[in-house]
Specification:
This protein is 44% helix and 12% strand. It has 248 residues and is of the alpha+beta class. α1 crosses α3 and α1 packs antiparallel against α7.
Length: 248
């Protein structure tokens, strides 16, 4: 009985934490991009990306929601990153959930280095005029030779991107450094090289999805560690309840 009460209380606290942070992110999105008409959602997405670039501090590490090694992979909550800053994955997380709060589908895209390892992550937003991909850490978005925004499909098809600044739209580029030697055609929707477990999961998922795993966007609920933990504790609560019924 005590275990069930503890599990139930934990689920409630996690859901309340999620609700409060979701409201915080929605306010941030509204102040950053306003209520753009549907046909101008791409402009709103770029304004939101510019706000994350300029207002959310870039840090060498994300402030993990649960600082325990086994749960560190969940990363930071969007609200925490918004308040104290984060890495490319943390800032991308804020941008993704803020875009979703505006009704714009968005997901993370991972850029791979020419040596085959996942190196950096950016955001792809789906707008009525097509996809737009932007980097909330370096303040730029991806365009083709004609200056039109491009998304993941174009990169994987071999498009070598040029760049524009999120705020002014002026030509920009990544710093000239070996770190940014990206193989854009190898861009994917997740970092599959971080650990042996991820590499193994990637091989399995490649077979199960018939190679489509590289283009499957991560659902937005996965950007909320509170929800992921809440689901886990929810299943634990159900299990504890079933055990109590069987024992009784």
């Amino acid at each position: 009985m005590v275990l069930q009460l503890l599990l139930g209380a934990t689920v409630v606290v996690l859901l309340l934490h999620y609700a409060l942070e979701r409201r915080l992110i929605a306010r941030f999105a509204h102040s950053a991009a306003g209520d753009a008409p549907c046909e101008r959602r791409m402009d709103a997405a770029l304004r939101l990306g510019s706000a994350v670039f300029s207002l959310v501090r870039a840090c060498p590490d994300d402030p993990c929601f649960v600082p325990v090694p086994v749960l560190a992979s969940l990363g930071a909550t969007p609200g925490r990153v918004l308040r104290v800053g984060g890495t490319c994955s943390g800032k991308s997380r804020v941008a993704i959930v803020a875009l979703r709060a505006m009704g714009i589908p968005a997901a993370q895209v991972t850029l791979y280095h020419s040596d085959g390892h996942a190196q950096h992550c950016v955001v792809e937003a789906k707008c009525r005029g097509g996809p737009v991909m932007f980097d909330p850490v370096y303040g730029l978005y991806f365009v083709n030779d004609g200056g039109q925004p491009v998304g993941l499909a174009a990169l994987r098809a071999g498009q070598r991107p040029a760049f524009r600044g999120l705020a002014q739209g002026d030509p920009r580029e990544y710093p000239r450094h070996e770190y940014f030697d990206f193989d854009y055609s190898n861009s994917r929707t997740a970092n599959w090289t971080q650990s042996r477990a991820r590499r193994t999961a990637y091989r399995v998922l490649t077979v199960l999805t018939r190679g489509r795993i590289d283009e499957l966007r991560q659902p937005v609920f996965a950007e909320w560690p509170q929800l992921l933990l809440g689901v886990g504790f929810g299943f634990a609560l159900i299990a504890a309840h079933l055990v109590a019924i069987n024992v009784g």
